[in-house]
Fold this sequence. Notes:
Elements: E1 4-16, E2 27-34, H1 37-51, E3 59-66, E4 77-80, H2 84-88, H3 95-108
Antiparallel strand pairs: 1-2, 1-3, 1-4
Amino acid sequence: MKASVMLREYKVVGRCLPTPKCRTPSLYRMKIFAPNDAFAKSGFWYFVSQLKKMKKSSGEIVYCHPCPPGAWSWWFIRSKCTCVWGLRCVHILSLTHIKRCSEMNKQQR
Length: 109
């Protein structure tokens, strides 16, 4: 079974809810590849909860929109399901993993 996914690059900005201790909480910005904004928000909360002590129930999304097409951003990416994780965590993967992922996509087309 082959399943291809159209991914867009989303820019998501979120923060903790203001409290009496911290009236202006710091903002966290992230660019993430996702098929729609719901998946982008979900991915944002997943990665922020891994890095900071912040949950969806104690935070809010300030901004979530697709990035405009430009020289450094990809607007649409056609990817197989095996490479979605590699595209989301591209900063963790080594160059060989990225090459293997792109080779698999070329072979499956």
